[in-house]
Write a structure and sequence with these properties.
Blueprint: E1 2-4, E2 7-17, H1 19-36, E3 43-48, H2 52-67, E4 73-76, E5 107-115, H3 119-129, E6 136-144, E7 156-160, E8 168-172, E9 181-188
Parallel strand pairs: 3-4, 3-5, 5-6, 6-7
Antiparallel strand pairs: 1-2, 2-9, 8-9
Helix pairs in contact: 1-2
Length: 189
């Protein structure tokens, strides 16, 4: 429920993308990654906990199906590197950082589900540097909803979806018993 000017609003939920849309987007992004990084043998993918993790695995699978090369995948918990911990208290463990490869000298693609203010990707780059010095870091986001507070621009965007500031984008991918979907939650006045 949203609250504004002393009133409560019932959220309106609208589906923006379904399973087929997500599959098409990931196939397109896989081809863009291959075109940009001709040598994918030095490529690794790291998903930001939580929403970026299933996307990272699916993107790696798409690249592997095209190039027949295994792409290592890791997961990154950015909670301790966020600059808004005083505003957003640390939540319960949202997933561990698991990077089963040396990031030094590698081309790393950091994956997240939604780009909003840019603070998550900034925290992800800080966290990633704790594990080594990549040759380069590229950024793939499924949904870019605007409202940037930091000068961040993704290298790969699944879909741009302009939103109002209080809107909420929910990405459901890889959740047991739930169909893959991207939902937009808005306040109904």
């Amino acid at each position: 429920m949203f609250q504004g000017r002393g009133l409560f609003f019932v959220p309106v939920i609208r589906q923006l993308l379904d399973r087929q849309d997500l599959d098409r987007i990931l196939t397109r992004i896989a081809h863009e990654v291959i075109e940009r990084n001709r040598c994918v043998e030095n490529l690794c993918i790291i998903g930001i906990q939580r929403g970026g993790v299933p996307l990272a695995y699916r993107l790696a699978g798409k690249i592997e199906s095209v190039k027949a090369v295994s792409v290592p995948v890791g997961t990154l918990n950015i909670a301790r590197h966020r600059d808004d911990r005083d505003i957003r208290p640390l939540q319960a463990e949202t997933g561990r950082t698991i990077i089963p490869f040396d990031v030094s000298g590698k081309k790393i693609i950091v994956v997240d589900d939604v780009l909003f203010t840019g603070r998550s990707i900034r925290a992800a780059m800080d966290a990633l540097m704790d594990y080594g010095r990549p040759a380069c870091i590229q950024f793939f986001v499924l949904i870019d909803r605007g409202h940037r507070e930091l000068p961040v621009k993704p290298d790969y965007v699944g879909k741009n979806i302009p939103t109002m500031f209080p809107d909420n984008i929910k990405v459901r991918i890889g959740q047991e018993g739930v169909e893959d979907a991207v939902l937009l939650e808005t306040a109904d006045e």
